């Protein structure tokens, strides 16, 4: 295996410069030298020796990723495409930064706190944490920490990479209304976290189009897959009646579609369905699922870039990052005739008066 000295000789720099690039200390290294050193590292497949540093108080070159599990899964949390993707992308960007990843997932927050406090890591990524639990793990570890999809914020002293969840809920609801739907069921696991923000966006779109919010149309499916089946059975009464169902995750939408199709429902002829996330499942379905697209790779990339800046004492331009979303419209939504003019038509009429 190539050594740091050999890399330094190839590039024509000191071993200290090579070591600084490997360990992310690049403040005083030119961009040209960084690029040349990283090119040699990739081509020669250099692997840092981490054993000694990880057993001392020096940098371990390990990033911890902890996920608080808030749902029940038939298999594991990584069977959820979102979590599978985010973990995979995080590992890629952590490795590219010259670090290693340690992963721990649990429904028990105390287990997460104990594990994170015991790790000798240079930084942490906390996924699906409330503001209070984020603050607790930060105080326990005293390490740089970046959250992904933090919720229940009560102050500004946090660093989070999230999504325009409210905007996504608004955009899809508006699209359904524009396609003639006034009866739109909203289906979520529970009314917390990102689901709550998506619900607010749903309400905003209804209000904009003067459609009264109907509480019975907001359906909490819960976290138990077996209990959800009975709820899907109850939802069969809404088929063939010009209803649309907006699921606040693709995983729920896929589960619902499977149930409905198995019970003779034709999608979108008997029922229009939309999801949120635009993951791989959405594109493998037949028909393909219309969904709100989020860029999971970008979310992971910005998370690690932000964490590296904190570790390297570099200034942050933003601490509360909200990434944009857009609609991915496919084959699960039909257009129906409207019983009344839409908002844009009403606005045009007012101008002509």
UniProtKB/TrEMBL annotation:
Keyword DNA-binding: yes
Superkingdom of origin organism: Bacteria
Keyword Mitochondrion: no
One MF term in the entry's GO annotations: DNA binding
Keywords carried by this UniProt record: DNA-binding, Transcription, Transcription regulation
Xref: SMART domains: HTH_LACI
Record-annotated HTH cro/C1-type domain positions: 2-47
PROSITE patterns: HTH_CROC1 (PS50943), HTH_LACI_2 (PS50932)
Pfam families: LacI, Peripla_BP_3
Domain HTH lacI-type: 2-57
Name of protein: LacI family DNA-binding transcriptional regulator
